[in-house]
């Protein structure tokens, strides 16, 4: 436990997506949401969502980020904006002396990530990219490896398939139909929570969700990625086809210490899995292997008139939100990096960028250091 | 009724004898005398020899086909001997050290009017057959990704040889050669292969032959445009409680895949058609295998045309 006397007032700096990040933050008793803030020049739909969240949480919404930070005595900024604004808002928070919890992806541009690393370092604040590393199955995997159950890790493989649909299927666009506008599609997707790629710049699954499985690999191997080779395709959804971004990708990873790895990632359609999707981790070591289902522990529930979109398998005992924020609180108090700090997040972002480049060129790419 | 000779280790095949309505084991040849003796006792009165060459010399009239399960180094020679004696061939892969050698065997079989089928057991496993049936029925749509994990234990094959069956499975699912091949290997029996196909399809194969003694592991996932299939040992584990943490035991798929494979071999002969796993499939697999070797050497993606 951290010192219970330490509590942190938090500003939600834009909350245009599904609100799992600020909701996750406030699940920990040391973190209190006190204000929602955003820039005044944002479009109406952004203000509407910010206002809605503020109303639901019974806190004020201020259309001036710096003023909100100054007026509400906050110590933590929670950034959950469109992806292309993530880093700029995080930098402004850090420059104001706030610790930062940021939604994924870190950014749509590597140079923006560099700005965050510099800002949190210069201002001596902590940064955490939201992640899933403390799900029960991940912790079990980490413990098994640390306890020597399979010896030294030699290769690691993650399947990270989300089965939600993402608008009209590939091939559904008529000859006179305009291409699907990425932002408008993402705004529509807000209703069912599949708007992880919200923003003006179109992003593929590799860019939107890649941080999750790559963060698993990073935590479990402790190794940097040195080379990548990618195959990527728009295989399922018309929005991805129209915007030339992947919804299915496979990546070969070559890491430090001669550790090999692979990643399969995609938004494969609701018909392809009864639940959220097949998410698995395979680890080979010098003394054995691990096969892990990320969803476990889970309970299956079936009943008459069950809605078609309801997952029959329910994840249980996941204490992810609390554990992430407990880690972040410790990080703030110790001044030491937590589970996924700015430098680690930037490293993952560069791996993603290299993987996307490889997918377009068909060549092996060495991520930029 | 097809009369067939067993060449090499034969235990699994002999046990199936009562369940083979269209095939009879009428001869056997094995360089391992003890094993041959045991097999002979099980089969009863069959022609027996220490080698295929000897069997052909003394008992050529007693069989119409051979099932070659001999040591890898002898398989190509055995295939050529059998084909030249007009015996149909079912051979365990790998049966050749190069594409040229494989082509020589295929050409010899064709020239002598006999069938050549690879004993590609993995294709006939009930789990893989189920995936394939859904794929062929169009339930899964256009294949997008195939993901295979195979962790062998106590394997005598090299990683390059052990992974051939998985290359075959990936190519079978896509029905074509890949356009690009990238491979990463490790010294101690580990290989991962990344294939790209012309229709934007992709496959990843993770192969290891250095798992500690005990159970092995296999899974194949096919992600299609309208569905997905997951054939995963992990889904078929039961638990044993005997103190401490429970241990997992995999539900066996049995040996019915061998029956299905032998039935296909027999039927391809009686129907005078090409077997489902013939020389062309083998040639494709070996081309990819050669590209894997080249990729490992160059540390680059290899384009296949």
Describe the structure.
- The complex is a heterodimer of chains A (369) and B (305).
- With 369 residues, chain A is an alpha/beta fold.
- Chain A folds into two domains: 8-125, 3-Layer(aba) Sandwich (Rossmann fold), CATH 3.40.50; 137-319 and 342-361, Dihydrodipicolinate Reductase, domain 2, CATH 3.30.360.
- Chain A has helices at 20-25, 44-57, 65-71, 83-95, 110-122, 136-146, 182-189, 205-209, 211-221, 238-242, 320-334, 342-361, and strands spanning 8-15, 31-37, 61-62, 76-80, 99-102, 127-129, 153-162, 225-233, 248-255, 260-267, 279-285, 288-293, 298-300, 313-315.
- The longest helix of chain A is centred in the C-terminal third of the chain and has 20 residues, at 342-361.
- The radius of gyration of chain A is 20 Å and the shape is globular.
- Chain A starts with 7 loop residues before the first strand and ends in an 8-residue tail after the last helix.
- By secondary structure, chain B is of the alpha/beta class.
- Chain B folds into two domains: 2-119, Rossmann fold (3-Layer(aba) Sandwich), CATH 3.40.50; 123-254 and 286-303, Dihydrodipicolinate Reductase, domain 2 (2-Layer Sandwich), CATH 3.30.360.
- Chain B has a seven-stranded mixed β-sheet. Chain B has a six-stranded parallel β-sheet with strand order 3-2-1-4-5-6, with helices on both faces. Chain B has a two-stranded antiparallel sheet with strand order 13-14.
- In chain B, a hairpin with a 3-residue loop joins strand 8 and strand 9.
- Chain B starts with a strand and ends with a strand.
- Chains A and B meet through strand 7, strand 8, strand 9, strand 10 and strand 11 of A and strand 7, strand 8, strand 9, strand 10 and strand 11 of B.
């Amino acid at each position: 436990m951290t010192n219970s006397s330490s509590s942190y007032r938090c500003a939600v700096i834009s909350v245009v997506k599904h609100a799992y990040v600020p909701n996750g933050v406030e699940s920990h008793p040391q973190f209190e949401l006190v204000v929602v803030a955003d820039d005044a020049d944002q479009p109406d739909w952004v203000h509407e969502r910010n206002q809605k969240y503020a109303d639901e949480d019974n806190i004020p919404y201020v259309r001036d980020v710096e003023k909100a930070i100054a007026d509400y005595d906050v110590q933590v900024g929670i950034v959950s904006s469109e992806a292309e604004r993530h880093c700029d808002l995080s930098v402004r928070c850090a420059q104001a002396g706030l610790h930062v919890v940021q939604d994924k992806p870190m950014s749509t541009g590597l140079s923006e990530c560099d700005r965050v690393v510099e800002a949190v370092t210069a201002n001596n604040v902590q940064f955490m990219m939201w992640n899933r590393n403390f799900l029960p199955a991940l912790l079990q995997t980490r413990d098994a490896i640390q306890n020597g159950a399979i010896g030294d890790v030699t290769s690691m493989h993650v399947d990270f398939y989300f089965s939600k649909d993402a608008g009209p299927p590939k091939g559904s666009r008529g000859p006179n139909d305009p291409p699907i506008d990425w932002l408008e599609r993402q705004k529509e997707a807000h209703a069912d929570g599949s708007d992880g790629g919200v923003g003006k710049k179109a992003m593929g699954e590799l860019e939107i969700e890649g941080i999750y499985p790559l963060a698993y690999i990073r935590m479990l191997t402790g190794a940097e990625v040195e080379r990548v080779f990618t195959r990527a395709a728009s295989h399922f959804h018309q929005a991805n086809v129209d915007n030339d971004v992947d919804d299915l990708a496979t990546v070969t990873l070559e890491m430090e210490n001669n550790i090999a790895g692979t990643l399969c990632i995609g938004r494969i359609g609701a018909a392809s899995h009864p639940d959220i999707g097949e998410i698995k981790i395979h680890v080979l070591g010098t003394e054995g292997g691990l096969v892990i289902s990320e969803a476990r522990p889970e309970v299956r529930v079936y009943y008459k008139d069950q809605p078609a979109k309801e997952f029959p398998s329910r994840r249980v005992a996941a204490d992810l939100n609390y554990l992430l924020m407990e880690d972040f609180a410790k990080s703030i108090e110790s001044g030491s990096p937590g589970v996924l700090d700015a430098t680690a997040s930037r490293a993952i972002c560069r791996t993603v960028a290299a993987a996307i480049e490889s997918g377009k060129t068909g060549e092996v790419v060495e991520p930029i250091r | 009724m097809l009369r067939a000779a067993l060449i090499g280790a034969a235990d699994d095949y002999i046990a199936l004898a009562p369940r083979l309505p269209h095939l009879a084991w009428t001869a056997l040849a094995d360089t391992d005398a003890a094993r041959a003796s045991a097999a002979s006792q099980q089969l009863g009165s069959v022609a027996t020899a220490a080698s295929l060459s000897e069997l052909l010399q003394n008992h050529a009239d007693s069989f119409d086909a051979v099932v070659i399960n001999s040591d890898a180094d002898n398989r190509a020679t055995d295939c050529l001997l059998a084909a030249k004696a007009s015996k149909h061939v079912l051979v365990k892969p790998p049966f050749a050290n190069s594409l040229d050698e494989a082509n020589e065997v295929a050409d010899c079989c064709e020239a002598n009017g006999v069938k050549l089928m690879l004993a590609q057991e993995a294709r006939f496993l009930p789990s893989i057959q189920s995936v394939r049936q859904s794929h062929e029925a169009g339930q899964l749509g256009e294949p997008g990704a195939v993901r295979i994990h195979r962790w062998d234990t106590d394997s005598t094959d090299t990683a390059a040889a052990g992974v051939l069956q998985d290359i075959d499975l990936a190519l079978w699912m896509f029905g074509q050669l890949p356009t690009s091949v990238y491979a990463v290997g490790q010294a101690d029996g580990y290989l991962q292969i990344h294939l790209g196909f012309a229709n934007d399809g992709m496959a990843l194969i993770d192969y290891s032959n250095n798992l500690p003694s005990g159970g092995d592991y296999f899974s194949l996932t096919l992600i299609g445009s309208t569905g997905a299939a997951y054939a995963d040992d992990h889904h078929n584990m039961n638990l044993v409680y005997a103190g401490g943490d429970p241990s997992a035991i995999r539900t066996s798929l049995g040996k019915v895949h061998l029956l299905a494979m032998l039935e296909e071999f027999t039927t391809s002969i009686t129907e005078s058609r090409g077997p489902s796993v013939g020389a062309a499939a083998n040639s494709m697999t070996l081309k990819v295998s050669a590209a894997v070797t080249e990729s490992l050497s160059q540390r680059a993606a290899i384009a296949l045309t």
